[in-house]
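Researcher: Quick one. three chains, 1101 residues in total.
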Amino acid sequence: MKRTTLTLLSFLVAACLLLIAPAAAQSTEPPVEIHFAFLTFNRVSEALESVESAIDEITVPRINVKVKLHPYSIADYAQQINLALQSGEALDVFHTLGDLPQSVSQNKVRDITDLVDEYAPDAKAVVGDFLKAAMINGRLYGIPTYKGAALAPNLVYRADIMAEIGIDPATITSFHDLTAVYAKVKETHPEMVPLTPDSAGSLGLIRSLHGIDFLGDDPFRLNNVGALIGDSLTVVNFFESKEFIDTITLTRDWYNAGYILKDAATTTSNCLEQLTGGKAFSCIASYSGQEAYVQISAQTGRDIRMVRLGQPYLTTSAVNALTWSVASTSQHPEAALKFMNLIFSDRDVINLIIYGLEGRDYVKVDADHVRYPDGQDANTVPYTAQLSCGIVGNQFIQYAMDGTNMDDLKLWDYENKNSPRSPAFGFTFDNSGVTNEVSAVQNVINEYLPGLSTGSMDPEVELPNFIAKLKAAGMDKIIAAKQAQLDAWVSQQQ
Amino acid sequence: MKNLYSKGEKAFATGSGILLAVLAVASLLPFLLIFMASITSEESLIFNGYSFTPKAFSLDAYHYMLAQSQVVLRAYGVSIFVSVVGTGASLILVSTLAYPLSRPDFPFRRVLTFVVVFTLLFNGGVVPSYIMWTRVFRLKNTIWALIVPNYLMSGFSVLLVKNYFEKAIPRDLIEAAQIDGASEFAIFFKIMLPLSVPVLATVGMLTALVYWNDWINGLYYINDPSLYGIQQLLIRILDNIQFLKSGAAGMALGNVVVDLPSAAVRMALAVIGILPILLIFPLLQRYFIKGMVIGAVKG
Amino acid sequence: MNSRKRTRLKLKKSLPLLLMALPGLAYLVINNYIPMAGIVIAFKKMDYAKGVFGSDWVGFDNFKFLFSTPDAWIMTRNTLLYNLAFIVIGTICALVVALCMNEIKERFFAKYFQGAFLLPNLISMVVVSYIVFAFLNTDTGLLNRTVLPALGVSEINFYSQPQAWPLILLIVYLWKNTGYASVIYLAGIASIDPTLYEAARIDGAGKWDQIRFITLPQLKSIIIILTLLSVGRIMFSDFGLFYQVPMNSGPLYSTTQTIDTYVYRGLMQLGNIGMSSAAGLYQSIVGFVLVLTANYLVKKISPENAMF
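Model:
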């Protein structure tokens, strides 16, 4: 009885609304408000409301959901997510930051296995087999960001110098070919440093080794013991592998020959700054596609080119580092998923989140390209989250900044789908059973790895110490745990 | 009076002056170095290194900051407001608690002092405080969130003021006032406070420094950029830079090549963070030093 | 009967004092005591869906990682030795600066010196680490580019020389904190009754005697308070000083690793707040026991200077 009245009433209200504002009246229920958190590297905007209401105009009629945006800078992100989850503050959708396994074992994110087909089918379809990377023990905990995830190691070099020393870059196919190049650079330009680190403590050489799956509990830093090499399904200690030892021995030779920046292990200035300053000849960095040099040239003011030193290799952690999840404390998981579905499939919604309002925050150049309005830049427009383009949802339906070659984006997508995958692709290591060992091993790796991988430590002397300390810190227990979990996963797959 | 100062004392005073002058110069040298770095061109910084006498000048770093001057100025405003209001409120709370604790005839003296000291040794962690201040007191994203949690009263200040009340103010004064029938409040306001200017000036200065330097409250309680204080603003910019330079950025961002503020800009940020202090500090110090002198004469 | 009456009278007399203390105490209860309930997290396996208080108990499991490492000794030793050095040398330097400051009668110089000493306290450790890097790094640092070549010394890679860092960190610590601490001692000196000095001068006491027999004894209680409080924090370390300033450089761990940096590095990837709370609780309890002991000793020797 009561219910019929209510339905009738809401029908009437809906009918009225239909007359006034046809767009807002698809549903009889009031819209659900969901809270959406993401990482931004742009200035945190003060014009969120204008963007939110523009999104609401799309989402309320379609899925009856309103959104509150919570862009956090890196200083706040992890802290704010944890506080919101623990204090019961409203939070529905957020993304992991390299910590999907921990988020699952600590119950930060919700199991969406039974909801995804109904509420986020489009998102599921977009990401294809990337979805496997967000599954743990057969259950699904999120949807990985869809972007250029297949990263290939590249030599990023000064084209003018390369021409001057007369080496054809096409002859460079792996970092072993670089010794001769660097010798020539050093000879003709003694004031320059042939190789600078991509970031402090990492020359990028280890990342360019092909076919290594670190079975990552930490995809952001290469500091895991226990890796798969090639097609083998036996977990080995990477730091005792021939691949690692050969690499650091070569690095040490380069260091001694003066090819490497002496402060490589600790430097505060990255590769771009060294290139800009005219000090660096090259660095080794991983990019998807083959066009990143265009941006690097523009920013450094130098003539920069790239050449691939290896091919992309997809592992679980390369894909699930950023996984969009529903908070375990969310009161509206269905609405949250419906919204998540849109950031993977709705061009208008994602572009509002990334670029803000057309005309005010950006202007269109053509169907695919945008730029900031005249006289404005990322720091002055009221809203932009442009640097989060590889973080939020589906990068391939976003506009690109003016000057981006759309063919390169096609290559990203092609390589996402066709790059070789690790035999353990889809396996995720849960380290919650070996926390004591992980904390001790982390400290040992931090102590030795930057020095060894930048050549400032002598492997002859320090490598045995490193291995001994890893063993003392409980490395074998971690490897055994990884192997056991991996074996279980393999048998589950069959 | 003058003849009372011996030769040795004069020599000591001169020696002190020289020692402090040397130390002061040494203390300021690092600032000179970052200032010079902030006006050095990026190329020169990378090629020639840091120097007190840079080879190529550039004001690019300051242009970069100037583009954001509105944000920076507002952050100064927030920081100044928070420091002034926070320090004032803190002084009231601290001194009213320190006074009873300093009275030997106050029966709960030892227990309550312990209660104060205990807070300096243990803290319960972020989450319960966060729930308290955001859910019970609803401070999130208000300016009070920068003032009230954590710093409004430090046990350390209470101990300093209490110690001063005990050691520097003659007990006869209080007893005489009590015999005259003065109330505790009258004693506190008419005798204790006026005689405690040096310690209040000191504690006030230390508290102001704490508020000025704080970014923790901002990290927990403020998401609204219009309420960022200057340290919060700087920490966010610096953290962004640090993350983007780490290997993590490549993984998180994929192909975005970020135009990072250069080393010179980072140095300019540091300079800009301390610049207003250089302007306001002399004013504050006038009161501070005046307070010390008054105290010395009266004490 | 009589004594109860007296107690009541005493209570009534102290009522105004209690009232005065009330706002401050209320703040401590809200800000410090109620949140201490959160300490339970150190004994729990955090489950975000269940919340802090609903998560399962795990006993002392969260504490194990602090002791199950071969580095436990190194990080504890470093933490204690640095803090001892900071307490002793820091106090002496702050006292010397305060004593000298007290001699400066010229307002202008007093202001200038004080400003110079307090300025380092106003910048964050991240910025300090940039400054130290500007001095010390091998490729572009001031020392290696300008100073050492002028002295004819070959370059030094400071970020891989662990033996240099105790001194470097001590200098940075003193640079950053001496001004702050000296302000407290200066206030203490200002509160000393000037007639004491006049009497001493008449007796022919020199400056050194005045410091020894008047200034330092008068400052004793404040020195004891500051030292006791530092003892309470003896297991803690300034994270920025030990993590940011050495640029997280691995080869330096033998002299820069402290409990706080170990915990941070170890948990970065685990994100386990139970374990980090356990570490904090362990550090607090050790400090607490030491403070109680130290306070007890002080009470034995000179009861009027004990903290409580």
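The longest strand of chain C covers residues 44-45.
Researcher: Thanks, that's what I needed.
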